[in-house]
TrEMBL record:
All copies of domain Plasmid replication protein C C-terminal, residue ranges: 319-418
Biased amino acid composition, Polar residues: 260-270
Residue intervals of the Plasmid replication protein C N-terminal domain: 13-184
Protein name: Plasmid replication protein RepC
Regions that span the bilayer: none
Organism classification: Bacteria, Pseudomonadati, Pseudomonadota, Alphaproteobacteria, Hyphomicrobiales
UniProt source species: Neorhizobium phenanthreniclasticum
Region of interest called Disordered, as start-end residue ranges on this chain: 254-292
Amino acid sequence: MGNAIDDLRPAGRRITPLRAEFSRRARSTEVGSVTRAQLSMLAQTLTCTGLINGSESHLLVALINTAPAEAFDKSGIPIVFKSNRQLAFEIGRSAGRVSRMLSRLFDVGLITMQDSGNYKRYPVRNGEGEITDGCGIDLRILIARYAELDQWVKKARVEKKAVDAALRRYRGALRTARHAIVAATGLPEMVLQTIGRRIERLTKFVGLAPKATSETLRRATVLLDWLVDRLMRIPRRVLDPASEPGKMTCPNAVNDMHRQNTTPHQSAFSNEKRRSASAEQPRLQDAGSADEWAFEESLKQPSDQVNDLRNQPQDAVALRDLLAAAPTLREFGYSPTRWAELTRLTPILCRFAGISDDARRRAVESMGERQAAVAVAITLEKTNRHEVTSPGGYLRAMTARAATGRLHLARSVFGLAARHRSWSSP
């Protein structure tokens, strides 16, 4: 005869620290401050917060309306004694579904349970027939959390209005931008195609507009308005005045701190070296393959300049120099004034450039957050200039060179800045 195996399955309702806290608050709540009508209206509007769905809201309203109005007075106890089968009949769901929804309402703190030994629900009455206690579904936690939940509903309504307003503005700006491409005259075909691709890239980044945040829609709208101004040849304007860097008295001021040296060349002819177009790789149009020659080739530079660049710390690049080298950042509506802002924008810039999260994480692990942000900005700028056809591969190649100490971001930044000045000068 074999040994009997004890049933190790736990008996009773599952108790979590959160459920225990809700039960404690329900027992210590004073009834009488909130009426049943107020709770019923609150239960119907909780769906806008995302806390519960429509079916759970329907069940909660049925529970509130089941308890008599006097149960919410000072001398009352709002406990519901109906079975799951009866509640299922009233709301048109199965008993199993009602049981799962009650567990969900317990988890989010909208009801608590006072269980009996056999899970039966019944009231306890005194000699005069008044209910003094009972085992069932306790609604006192709703009274305790009424002010908190009502504030959530008000906040959700305000956010919904902001999103609706931003959504209407975004859709109008997107329609205007697409019509402006068709109506634009006198611009080269390559420019029109570039702007068209940028608009489509922007819509892909926003995704489903009704599900986007108001901040995302607002930034996309600002960028679309700027693209329309460019198509209509309206003089360039500032995308976001609040994000524009203030006037600095010292050209070498970075992050509100004066940095003594911001150029990697300390000789008398350093300006010539910094502005030299040879500071970038000579085979720009083929740089999209992200091979070894896609970056700066130190062997083709003078020996003294190569040694100077190798010994130069990577963080010597000023943020203002990076913004001058990568004007695409401003075109997308971003003008960071601190390195911390640029590092926070790096995931968004990767999405614009088509760089995967894995490639960005590997770059951060190899270079650090600041240098990875500089590398992403360079990649985005070269992608926008059609010099790089595989942004993800380009960044991975930069990461590999950084791991071996052969990556010199300073020269890339100064070379891009010099070329931008030469192209924009008359």
